[in-house]
Amino acid sequence: MTNAIQAGTWSVEPTGSTASFSVRNMIFRTVQGRFPIESAEVSVDADGVPRSVTATLDAAGFSTDHPKRDAHVRGKDFLHTDAHPRLTFRSTAVVPQEPGTWLVQGRLTLRGVTSDVHLTVRVAQDGDDTAEVVATTLLDRRAAGVGYGPSFLVGRKVAVQLDLRLRRTPEHGV
């Protein structure tokens, strides 16, 4: 396994990838959950640095394994998935850090509100055409358009982690 990634276009394998989160609830309890990943793509230049990153998550698939809470969060108070069934991310800049680590700056659209997000991304290529990626951020849910409830009931900061399995797309004509 190497802490670099080869040039090319890399796409997520949704079944081998997860988008998870945790948030404080009622001051003392942490709630964990997940969103299904619909798609993600990373375009990597010849130097092994991503040029662009895009991702789409299925907001309607939100789950904490608590059906009543999940239905409430999918509703108008939080995600309003009837009107906004997807969360989307598009990078605006990628800043290399140490080898195999980048700061990916971008725009997250959640519930029709677009906000700035900074992800710390680590990658390990484990084959010619496969790579493992872990991306983390701390999201301010109010800045992202989810303002329901006082912060002592539902925490303002949401820890997000993406564990992605990427596969390099074959180049045409090669």
Would you mind describing this structure in some detail?
The chain is mainly β and 174 residues long. Helix content is 5%, strand content 56%. It has one helix and ten strands. It has one helix at 67-74, and strands at residues 8-12, 18-25, 29-35, 37-44, 50-58, 86-96, 101-110, 113-125, 130-140, 154-168. Strands 1-4-5-6-7-8-9-10 form an eight-stranded antiparallel barrel. A hairpin with a 3-residue loop joins strand 2 (18-25) and strand 3 (29-35). The protein is elongated and about 45 Å long.
Q: Which descriptor suits the 3D outline? A: elongated
Per DSSP, what share of the residues sits in E-state strands of 2 or more residues?
over 45%
Question: How is the biggest beta sheet arranged?
Answer: 8 strands, antiparallel, barrel
Number of helices: 1
The pLDDT mean sits at 89
Order of helices and strands: EEEEEHEEEEE
Distance between the termini: 24 Å
Strand order of the largest sheet: 1-4-5-6-7-8-9-10
Helix content: under 10%
Radius of gyration: 17 Å
- Structural class comes to mainly beta
> pLDDT below 50 for ≥5 consecutive residues: which ranges?
none
Care to count the β-strands? Answer: 10
